[in-house]
């Protein structure tokens, strides 16, 4: 099967292009060049840059939600700090995609229903099954905050943290997220097996 | 002084127009009509809809940050639930402005430094003075989450909360925000007077 491989190449090239040039710098020609494909091959699968952007965001989200939904933390085999460090790191490595996602959400006024069901829902469901309904809101808030912190510019992050040391700021953010998350329903409840 | 009064009229009309028609529906002609002014008067102060939008967002933010920075909660004369209920209500009443703010931030990649210093900074500073440096991050996160929840569409809010009752969803959100905020440094520290 050549198709899935080609799609992977395109999405992976588009992700790199996005991180280097931002949403507005996304060009089919440059993505094709980076993937070692012809522009025609890219437009065959993704007719416009909007299609390409949507698919790239979806691919990142899928990776993020999979990581969260299947994290060993659920099995008590990892810590809250580890799952948050992993997720924050993933979001920071994909800052422009996180930004693109926020941009589209704010532009449209809401996440589309399809997008929603395909994305965070399985993670929130798993949280609710393990820790009761209040865990949904907690999961949503912590995920949102982690993404938002990852997407902050360096200057903003330093301003929010009130420090001039970027490494210290990242540590403060992780510690802050852990403290916030630690007040969640998992702190007082053992996971229920569904 | 006629000028401040005219500006107030324009901003107030623009706010109403925004809530009714959204960012993309903002028109100088309609704002002027609603304010009982000529389009020329509006464009004299705000040459483009972007100027008008920026000023309207700034005015809302100022109102929001003033409310937070001067809330009786700081004097121990109100509850965490009250300050969060007040802020959530204000943001919900200005959903389109909150959305416009998120949209611009996501588009630009960060809040401009000027905007930042003029906005949340005094509130975060007051928190840090009263409760130490960790209170900055807490304040920032709770404010961000409250705004984000206020801006969610009805369907999203119901999906996140896992309920079909909108009033119940709003109550769950407030309760969630109070629980989150209650884990902040104010829970264990009395406010220090600067």
| CATH top level assignment of the largest domain in chain A | Mainly Alpha
Q: In oligomeric terms, what are we looking at?
A: homodimer
The biggest chain-chain interface is: A-B, 40 and 40 residues
Work out the radius of gyration of chain A.
18 Å
Largest sheet of chain A: none
Q: List the secondary-structure elements of chain A in sequence, H or E.
A: HHHHHHHHHHH
Principal-axes shape call of chain A: globular
**DSSP helix fraction of chain A:** over 70%
Q: What is the correct CATH architecture of the largest domain in chain A?
A: Orthogonal Bundle
User: Unreliable runs of chain A, pLDDT <50, ≥5 residues?
Assistant: none
Q: Could you tell me how far the N terminus lies from the C terminus of chain A, measured between alpha carbons in angstroms?
A: 37 Å
**Mean pLDDT reading of chain A:** 86
CATH topology name of the largest domain in chain A, in short, is Tetracycline Repressor, domain 2
- The domain count of chain A comes to 2
The assigned structural class of chain A equals: mainly alpha
Number of strands of chain A: 0
Please report the number of helical segments of chain A: 11
Domain HTH tetR-type (chains A, B): 4-64
GO molecular function, one term (chains A, B): DNA-binding transcription factor activity
Keywords (chains A, B): DNA-binding
Pfam families (chains A, B): TetR_N
Could you explain how this protein is built, in words?
Chains A, B: Keywords: DNA-binding. Chains A, B: Residues 4-64 form the HTH tetR-type domain. Chains A, B: GO terms for molecular function: DNA-binding transcription factor activity; transcription cis-regulatory region binding. Chains A, B: Pfam families: TetR_N. Chains A, B: This is Transcriptional regulator BetI. The structure is a homodimer of 194-residue chains. Helix content of chain A is 74%, strand content 0%. The first copy, chain A, has helices at residues 3-21, 28-35, 39-45, 49-69, 80-93, 95-108, 113-118, 121-131, 134-151, 154-161, 166-182. In chain A, helix 4 packs parallel to helix 8 (121-131) and helix 10 packs across helix 11. The longest helix of chain A is centred in the first third of the chain and has 21 residues, at 49-69. Chain A has 2 domains: 1-47, Homeodomain-like (Arc Repressor Mutant, subunit A); 51-187, Tetracycline Repressor, domain 2 (Orthogonal Bundle). With 194 residues, chain A is mainly α. Chain A has 11 helices and no strands. Chain A is globular, with a radius of gyration of 18 Å. Chain A binds chain B through residues 22, 99, 102-103, 105-107, 109-111, 113, 116, 121, 124, 128, 133-134, 136-138, 140-141, 144-145, 148, 152-153, 155-156, 159-162, 172-173, 176, 179-180, 182-183, and chain B through 22, 99, 102-103, 105-107, 109-111, 113, 116, 121, 124, 128, 133-134, 136-138, 140-141, 144-145, 148, 152-153, 155-156, 159-162, 172-173, 176, 179-180, 182-183.
